[in-house]
Amino acid sequence: MITGILHATFLTTDLATARAFYEGILGLKPDPNRPAMSYDGAWYDVADKQQMHLMLLPNPEAGLQRPAHGGRDRHVALAVSDLAKLMERLDHAGVAYTHSKSGRRALFCRDPDQNALEFIASN
Fold this sequence. Notes:
By secondary structure, the protein is α/β, with parallel strands linked by helices. It has a single domain (7-58, 67-121), classed as 2,3-Dihydroxybiphenyl 1,2-Dioxygenase, domain 1 (Roll). Helices cover 18% and strands 33% of the residues. The chain is built from 2 helices and 7 strands. The longest helix has 11 residues, at 15-25.
């Protein structure tokens, strides 16, 4: 019955910093069709009918200790066409990342709010 994942949502307590990461480092473009809601945020088109959402809301897990390796935490996995280019961008921005422990061509990093992201080479 399930035919796909339509969006993944992340909480942020600093929308400007989160947008600088998702737009400036990852290169995502905001969706101008995000409706007005009771909280601020941003939507990003990732692929056909797939999105990532940021919600400017208090973090209910503030102060929670996260595993150093994002693969041992809840995360979303995203396909990337050029893993080396992404690594260059993360290095340039000073964003720490770890390589997949499975041996796949993949890496994990955290956004400014400590949400874990996995990037898997699609080629």
